[in-house]
Amino acid sequence: MITVEVALPGRSYPIHIGSGLLAQAELILPHLRGRQVMVVSNPQVAGLYLPALRQTLEAQGLRVAECLLPDGEAYKDLEHLACIFDRLLAEGMDRRCTVLALGGGVVGDMAGFAAATYQRGVNFIQVPTSLLAQVDSSVGGKTGVNHPRGKNMIGAFKQPALVLIDIDVLATLPKRELAAGMAEIIKYALIRDREFLDWLDLHAPAMMQGEPELLAEAVARSCRHKAEVVLRDEFEEGERALLNLGHTFGHAIETHCGYGNWLHGEAVAAGMVMAARMSQQAGDLSQADVDRILALLQACQLPSQPPAMHADDFQSLMAHDKKVLDGRQRLVLLRALGHAEVVEVEPERLRQALQSMLHA
Ligand code: NAD
Ligand code: GLY
Predict the structure, then answer these.
(1) 3-class SS at 285?
(2) Is the CB–ligand 1 distance for residue 103 below 6 Å?
(3) Cα–Cα distance between 231 and 12 in angstroms, integer?
(4) pLDDT digits (tens, 9 = 90+) for 133-192
(5) N or C: which end of the chain has fewer CB within 10 A?
């Protein structure tokens, strides 16, 4: 087992990564407060992993209740968030209960937001089961739901008390979802770890075949990156924004196409290519650099082209991004492979770039 610590002062928490961890109650028990656990999941993941987790917890005398949300990004909204509060109240969960998210990023973001607000905040544990959730969304405390006008527009920061990553669960993850997780792994390499990019060029095909040791290594390396950045900038006042490479473009794609039609990781992949092309236009990346990114995404069966959209529509969706401050569009662009910066971009430059990249 590998442990990465998110060493936030007074709220430090471990990310345990390994095989067979769902059965190890001793990893979970120290991070509970009371004896009540509300597992938030969806039918797909619960069918596969809730019985084993329930057994692990109940064998320790804990009272376990469950809240199953419908599966998918389309349900990551206020209406379905309310289902979690309904279940917590119906089960009489008190302020010492623990909300435990068992699932991908959708479940994690929603359960975390519920934990942040139920009775003004209760204990929270993340057990991420998709690759994307293991390398990104379960770490760092961003939680929330979508609004029809924008992704993740309503939410809170809520750090978990534990992130428990069982690599074995990736064996049942559909290939398309595995690829979506690869997009966020590639993101860390592009923004801050060129050597990791070399490693991924070499190992991405085997990771896509589900090779568990390589997946564990990539998850650990990604979690270390995330932990380092979150430690330095928990509330995204600066450096943390770099973790959003490709996301401003990606969120516009997700919102335009309808939540769930493009997977988050797929939209981020196409968005990273758009950011890379803007970096190339600025003279910071070469054609060879862009081609290398395209080849890696292709090896992971990820899209590299945005959908057909009008540049004006795309630009107005981008204006809803949380990085927009005082009406000024800020984008994460690459200065080089392995080095990113937040850059303020003039509307006209963005319009021209979008026109060159989009085909409506
Ligand atoms: P997801 O939660 O929809 O999960 C993907 C699919 O895989 C679902 O159908 C799920 O049921 C299924 N699944 C999950 N684990 C499985 C397993 N082990 N076996 C079989 N099926 C499994 O999507 P996701 O890609 O995990 O997360 C995307 C969400 O995460 C988006 O809403 C995005 O905004 C959010 N996100 C949040 C952060 C953050 O910092 N909070 C960061 C990145 C992404
Ligand atoms: N996924 C970006 C962040 O957590 O900041």
Answers:
(1) coil
(2) yes
(3) 10
(4) 999 999 999 999 999 988 899 999 999 999 999 999 999 999 999 999 999 999 999 999
(5) C
Contact 276, 293 (CB under 8 A): yes
Query: What topology is assigned to 2-172 in CATH?
Result: Rossmann fold (3.40.50)
Q: What is the Cα–Cα distance from 26 to 28, expressed in whole angstroms? A: 5
Parse the chain into domains and list their residue ranges.
Answer: 2-172, 175-357
What are the residue numbers of the active site? 120, 142, 184, 226, 236, 240, 244, 247, 251, 264
Give the SS3 label for residue 64.
Answer: strand
CATH class of 175-357: mainly alpha
Dist. CA 106 → ligand 1 center (Å): 5
Low-confidence winner among 75-79, 198-202, 256-260, 265-269 (lowest mean pLDDT): 256-260
C-beta atoms surrounding 174 within 10 Å: 10
Tokens of 288: 């060879």
What amino acid occupies position 224?
R
**What is the amino acid identity at position 323?**
K
Q: Are 1 and 17 in contact (CB under 8 A)?
A: yes
Query: What is the token pair recorded at 40?
Result: 């938030």
β 330-336/339-344 pair status: antiparallel
Atom in ligand 2 nearest the alpha carbon of residue 142: 4
Tokens linked to 271: 């968005």
Q: Calculate helix-pair angle for 287-299, 264-281, nearest 10 degrees.
A: 170
Q: Are 9 and 231 in contact (CB under 8 A)?
A: no
The string of pLDDT tens digits covering residues 295-321 is 999 999 999 999 999 999 999 999 987
Cα→Cα distances 83→65, 87, 102, 114, Å: 13, 6, 16, 10
> What is the Cα–Cα distance from 94 to 74, expressed in whole angstroms?
30
